Amino acid sequence: MIRRLLNPRLLSRHLREAWWWLLDYVYAATGQTHAFLSRARPTDFRSGTKAPIVIIPGVYESWQFMRPLIEILHGHGHPVHVVAKLGRNRRSLADAAATVAAYLERENLNGVVIVAHSKGGLIGKLLMTTDDPGRRVSGMTAISAPFGGSRYARYWVVPSIRAFAPANVALHDLGLDHRVNDRITSIYGVFDPHVPEGSELVGARNIQLRVGGHFRILGDPAAVRAVLDAVTDAAESAV
């Protein structure tokens, strides 16, 4: 055991992952602070001539947490919509998917590309599977989504986190449904401290980047480029 722990290669990997973990929490803390102080409004990013984008953040994240990516997408000509009614995204997957579906209906949005982070990817997939009979959504780009759940979730007593346990019935059933997987791009890093199972999704376009972290991948230049490319592909496939 001691020899294994002192293995230089293994020790180097553990140190690198610990460093990524630290950077991840620094990014998350900074992002949450900026989100709290943000004066941006949901209507600030709705102009644009390209495919409409709907943002779905992760659990305990307001839409402002994804504002840096929102600004980039808007700067590339996309009208970007946020569903403020989601709040900090603590609702069940079914309730959250229904809330987003109602927003699409109310705003009469079509040819939508969802850009989601973490739990948002699960909400987006459930929406595409069960709450989008008119197929308003053409595709989704999910970043660090726990499609297979997270083994750590079972240690939490908070229902909004325990819902990510692999044994959760709703999550398990969603994982077995592959009908919309071919319209999803899943982007994730080589190390995710919150989703050790990874974010690979069967039948989807899976893109693994040489970056570590669950949150800071949102600001990684390679991830941003991958999101922009995936959004363009999804929009073109809907034409």
Give the topology.
Layout: H1 2-5, H2 8-37, E1 53-56, H3 67-75, E2 80-82, H4 93-107, E3 112-117, H5 119-130, E4 137-143, H6 159-162, H7 169-176, E5 184-191, E6 205-212, H8 221-238
Parallel strand pairs: 1-2, 1-3, 3-4, 4-5, 5-6
How would you briefly describe this protein structure?
Helix content is 42%, strand content 15%. By secondary structure, it is of the alpha/beta class.
How is this structure best described in words?
This protein is an alpha/beta fold. Helices cover 42% and strands 15% of the residues. The chain has eight helices and six strands, in the order H-H-E-H-E-H-E-H-E-H-H-E-E-H. It has a six-stranded parallel sheet, with helices on both faces. Helix 4 packs across helix 5. The longest helix is centred in the first third of the chain and has 30 residues. It is globular, with a radius of gyration of 18 Å. It starts with a helix and ends with a helix. The mean pLDDT is 91.
Shape: globular
Oligomer kind: single chain
In whole angstroms, how far apart are the ends? 58 Å
Low-confidence regions: none
How much of the sequence is in beta strands? 15-25%
Helix content: 40-55%
- The value of Rg in angstroms is 18 Å
Largest sheet: 6 strands, parallel
